[in-house]
Every structure is written in C-alpha cells, then in structure tokens.
Specification:
There is one protein chain. It is built from one helix and eleven strands; from the N terminus they run ββββββββββαβ. The chain is mainly β. Keywords: Leucine-rich repeat, Repeat. One of its GO terms (cellular component) is cytoplasm.
Length: 238
C-alpha cells in the first residue's frame, strides 16, 4: 500500500510541524506558498511521486539526487532560474518531469542524462537555445517546449526516435533541422506562432504524423509536397 501525504492548496508557507514519515512514497504540496522545503524531504529515499508545483520556490537542493526511486517530479509554476545537476542523476525518473512556467533561461544540460524519461515539459520559460546533444533522452515520448525564445533546434533532435509529440509553438524559429524527418514515431507536431519561412522536405517522411499545426507563421511558403502529405491522412492546420 502506497504511503501518501496530500497537502495541496493549504496555504502553507513552511512545513514546520508537518510529519514526513520515512515510508512516504507520494507527496503532494501543490498550490501552497512555500519558498523552501526542509532538508529532511530529500532523505525520503522511497519517494516515488513529488509535486511541488505552484509554490514560490527559487531553488532546488542538490540533495534531490538522493531520491533514487522518484519517477514523477512536478516543479512547474515556481520561480526557478536553474536546476541542480543532480536531477540528471535520478535513475528512477521515468514517467514525468514538469518544469513549465519558471524562469529558466537555459535548458538544463543535466536533463539530457535522463535516458528513461518519457515526458518532459519545459514550456513558458525563457529558454533561447537547446544543448547541441539531445541524444541521451532515448526514451522520450512527449516534449513540450512552447512559450520560450527558441531560435533554432539542434540536428540531434532527430535522434529522439521514440518521440510521439513535439510541441514548439510560440517560439522564434525561422527554420527546422532536416533531422526532424528521422522522428519516425511522431504523431503530433505543433509549430504555431513561429517565424518559419520554409519547411524541410524530410517532414514528408513522417508516415505516422496525423497532425501538423502551421498556423500563424506569416511568412511560411507552403511546399509543394504538403498537399500530398495531407491527402495521405495528416491533418494540416494552416
């Protein structure tokens, strides 16, 4: 039986007086007013799910690296401008990592070591570039990077072969790497509200793509292959 502690929406400013049993596996502190958490939280070695979203955290302790069983981590809607490298050393982080709506100016390179992670959300930050090498994210199924300041994507994007959803709306992309055509499992590609002028022909190789959203790219020149691609069953939104 999973040991759970659910304290969402309690207006907590600290965890003083809150008992954190060593057996805890699920801890929900969503939507409080925490600016920090006690060190004892990072010693809960059996913790599998940790939700610290919608608080006022400005940093995360490197001691988070001790949470070796953690498979789901939500740090969204805080005030984080950086993350400790130790997040990349969490072998159990397989299901979900949510970092959206923070103050990140760089994509944390440590995340590229999370080879078992399936979902990564880094939306609505201030990220302008991605690491050159994304190939370590070998199990990623869904990547959400919308609402940042991205101007380009690395060629290594094409190494994320299990990816099924790629969400890139509201960035500053003017082009896409040819390697995007290597994402053979891709089902959804959201490119809304960018500055694209062309699309790589390699997209036409994405045989499993069923939704391509191109809206609000004002200067985009529609390639000749797009109509044929649509005729094969892909819903193209212009």
């Amino acid at each position: 039986m999973t040991t759970r502690l659910e304290l969402s929406g309690q207006g907590l400013t600290s965890l003083t007086g809150v008992s954190l049993p060593d057996s805890l596996e699920y801890l929900d502190l969503y939507d409080n007013r925490l600016t920090s958490v006690p060190g004892e939280l990072w010693s809960l070695s059996g913790l599998r799910v940790l939700n610290l979203a919608a608080n006022r955290l400005t940093s995360v302790s490197p001691a988070i690296g001790a949470l070796r069983q953690l498979h789901t981590l939500d740090l969204g809607h805080n005030e984080l401008s950086a993350l400790p490298d130790e997040i990349g050393e969490l072998p159990g982080l397989t299901e979900y990592l949510y970092l959206s709506d923070n103050r990140l100016t760089e994509f944390p390179a440590a995340l590229c070591s999370l080879g078992r992670l399936k979902y990564l959300g880094c939306t609505d930050n201030r990220i302008s570039t991605l690491p050159d090498d994304l190939s370590g994210l070998t199990s990623l199924r869904e990547l959400r990077l919308y609402g940042n300041g991205l101007t380009a994507l690395p060629e290594s994007l094409g190494t994320l072969s299990p990816l099924r959803e790629l969400h890139l709306r509201r960035n500053r992309l003017t082009s896409l790497p040819d390697s995007i055509g290597e994402l053979s499992e891709l089902r959804q590609l959201d490119l809304r509200e960018n500055r694209l002028t062309t699309l790589p022909a390699s997209i036409a190789r994405l045989s499993k793509l069923d939704k391509l959203d191109l809206r609000w790219n004002k200067e985009l020149r529609e390639p000749s292959w797009l109509a044929d691609f649509e005729a094969l069953g892909c819903m193209v939104l212009r």
